[in-house]
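To the wet lab folks,

You asked to see what we're planning to order before we commit. Fair enough. Below is the target structure as tokens, and below that is the sequence we designed to fit it. If anything looks off to you, flag it before the synthesis order goes out.
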């Protein structure tokens, strides 16, 4: 998802201001990849979950990963 944000940002720069019009797909891509940064979980939450799982650290009740 973070790479998708970078790719869309580069595409927006290449196309210019016209890319913000709804009639072009880049406008939707921009909105969608920005939303992906927060759904379903953030990068930090994903890394924490993967790290704890890899090292066998139990998830605590207050580790709300999917909120």
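Sequence we intend to order:
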């Amino acid at each position: 998802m973070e790479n998708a944000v970078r790719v869309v940002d580069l595409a927006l720069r290449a196309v210019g201001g016209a890319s913000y019009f709804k009639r072009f797909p880049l406008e939707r891509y921009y909105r969608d990849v920005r939303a992906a940064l927060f759904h379903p979980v953030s990068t930090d939450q994903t890394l924490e979950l993967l790290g704890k799982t890899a090292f066998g650290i139990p998830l605590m009740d207050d580790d709300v990963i999917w909120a």
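Structural context that might help your review: The radius of gyration is 17 Å. Helices lie at 2-15, 25-36, 43-54.

Thanks,
Computational group
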